[in-house]
């Protein structure tokens, strides 16, 4: 039974090692694909997208009337048409000189940082040149990188205007919060609808309540008016027929027709008078929608559906992505300066896979020497501990993959430190057992393991506290080291108790 237990644990260690170092491959279409998750690498190991934003130096043609007020036109007007209307065309810089200040450069940098964080970009580097206003951003390369880049230089100008007069009714200063919400469709259909939830501040809520009362859909009184007028016409027609019993039938029909025509005209006029006033919502001067309100909005929240209800996963994900992009732009505020994307390129890391392979080989050679020392000094116990050690490293690498730890250069250092700590801990257990007069007794092994755990982890308390603090630091390189060390110390305590200590106890059983 002793041999069966030990062999079972060794087979389990071999399986974990095979999965960790070689993977699990399955056929996907015409290729074999590894089903084991890959490492999440930091930018200093995996490379990064480098995006340079430069201040927009272009100008925009603006049409003004005789009083100097800006005029919006539906189509481009010729010089003759401008002259006929008394308009003039002026070329206005997109960024006036008074906007190009250090304060606005720093504000733009802060807004871009907020947008990246709200979209889940945990790792990025951003810097600004306070002389030129250029902003350099480094972000990891993944499937969402292009979306992140497109949102960087979006101004985020939000406006609700009168659809007819073009008067600005609300803008960014009225927004308190923008986020994404999900809701099931009505019982008559199936699927999920994505909503862009715009929550306004106190002043904005008052404006929205007033606007939703003014720009409400017209009352549908046309049918009632027509019915009443028709009833009146019928009564008049009946009275006319009663009073003029000797009149010719043709004359009566002509009078009835005239009255009915008059009634239809009145109904049409009533319908025309109930034209609905509408508002237009714009983001960066692009129309998002033109609509009116079904009822007054008193809670200060405006929910806009992004697409229709759907059960298709890809369509739903597209709607969520679109809503999230708009939410991150509006929630962070509008950029005080217009920027252009001057360069957008992916740059590989200076540290290649070859460098990492050489480092892994060096660590492996050192470990092999350490295992040989174990076997020479502690005989069978040393061999069992070396086998268990390999299993710990394999499981450790799998845990790092599946806990989404971003591995940086500092993270690799953390892995090496964890391996060193485990070697010291195992050596402590084996040496404590060997010092006993009868190292082969089960009671001696248990006592040696217990004493080693107590002494080792008491000394490790300051390191554990530091590691936990590092985990919550926003700087990715430090948090990477902290997370790697956290999982490493946790495995040293748990794995060695369940596997290494168990193998040593089984061997000491009678």
Characteristics:
single chain; 19% strand; Gyrase A, domain 2; four-stranded antiparallel beta sheet; Multidrug efflux transporter AcrB transmembrane fold; 14 helices; elongated; 510 residues; alpha+beta
Mind explaining what this structure looks like?
This protein is of the alpha+beta class and 510 residues long. It folds into 4 domains: 2-22 and 33-42 and 352-508, Multidrug efflux transporter AcrB transmembrane fold; 48-57 and 95-217 and 281-347, Gyrase A, domain 2 (2-Layer Sandwich), CATH 3.30.1360; 59-93, no CATH class; 223-273, no CATH class. It is 54% helix and 19% strand. It has helices at residues 2-22, 43-46, 79-85, 102-118, 145-152, 202-214, 222-243, 249-273, 313-331, 353-402, 409-435, 442-459, 461-471, 476-508; strands at 25-28, 31-34, 40-41, 48-55, 59-64, 88-93, 125-128, 135-139, 158-162, 168-171, 175-184, 192-200, 279-283, 286-291, 301-310, 339-347, 406-407. Strands 7-8-4-16 form a 4-stranded antiparallel β-sheet. Strands 10-9-13-14 form a 4-stranded antiparallel β-sheet, covered by helices on one side. Strands 11-12-15 form a 3-stranded antiparallel β-sheet. Helix 7 (222-243) runs antiparallel to helix 8 and helix 10 (353-402) crosses helix 14 (476-508).
